[in-house]
């Protein structure tokens, strides 16, 4: 099909030409005497993306999901108790990963479309008088529902409870797109991957650990091998990696950091907020609603759109892909067939997103959903014009 393909899933995101060129390199000796300068260029700048000044950042040849495991096995002893709100597919999978590793997870169920409730987390920690709970697992931005949690409010709840548990935050669809304040929010482990806000192909897992989390690494008795942070720390200190690094992706990450930090992380977050406001205006103009149940928790990196009763979102997604060359995210688990997801993170601007919204409108119309053609796109353009 002629023309560009619109990749509007919430990740992987489109890779900028600039990053593709940076990755197009011959392989090299990752044990050479000149390699440490490259390693330090990356590791010294990664913390700036999340405003981390204490602790360390690590890069594994892996994915964001793998960093769930890395965070857990390096800090939580075998059979340890954990606390986790579940309000979407990725919070569910974080919990399942912990259980697969033999941890005991107390789950706080929330409706899909809602965010984690800090008051329930506080109550659960207050009830844990023996301080057996070793960590709270929190998804910052639930990619299945388009909902963003208030990490600062969760940390405040933990502090009010006077509980020593670690705060582990999945930032896969938020870091490098939304504001993320590692130090200020008191995060102990932040988890992400290369394929979303960093605008790269999948293949790099990134883990940020606080000083408090690092202090637990040497005392942790959980068996670990590939994801052993001790080996990573020792090698990173010399400018190397304990195993063969994903060189092409690292060159892309080095350039991505330049792009993000040159723009400024506050500007990156503002750009995503602006894009999201236009998408939400379009959804409203279509007469549809977002999965996020309250405006204040609606994500700025993606929007999950509910289709009307009696319609199947999978039909909309297939029409969009086969007729208009636009890929939309599908509904996951209990949302299958009920929502489609529009990603607006990474390498995106108002013009590319306006084209994508045009494709969504046509797919909705072809699926028999009564949307006035041009109204959603027009509402988005008006929103972007006002906020320019």
Keywords:
388 residues, alpha/beta, 7-stranded mixed beta sheet, 14 strands, 41% helix, globular
Write a structural description:
The protein is an alpha/beta fold and 388 residues long. Helix content is 41%, strand content 17%. It has 14 helices and 14 strands. The chain has helices at 17-23, 35-43, 46-50, 64-73, 89-100, 118-127, 151-161, 211-217, 229-236, 247-263, 265-285, 313-324, 350-366, 375-386; strands at 6-8, 56-61, 81-86, 104-109, 133-139, 141-142, 147-148, 166-170, 189-193, 204-209, 289-290, 302-306, 326-330, 339-343. It has a 7-stranded mixed beta sheet with strand order 2-10-9-8-5-3-4, with helices on both faces. Strands 1-13-14-12-11 form a 5-stranded mixed beta sheet, sandwiched between helices. The chain is globular, with a radius of gyration of 21 Å. The protein starts with 5 loop residues before the first strand and ends with a helix.
How far apart the termini lie comes to 33 Å
Beta-strand percent range: 15-25%
Coarse shape? globular
Into which percent range does the helicity of residues fall?
40-55%
Strand order of the largest sheet: 2-10-9-8-5-3-4
What letter string, H or E per element, gives the SSE order? EHHHEHEHEHEEEHEEEHHHHEEHEEHH
* Unreliable segments of 5+ consecutive residues: none
Question: Which structural category fits the helices and strands?
Answer: alpha/beta
Helix tally equals 14
The tally of strands reads 14
Rounded to an integer in angstroms, the radius of gyration calculated over CA atoms is: 21 Å
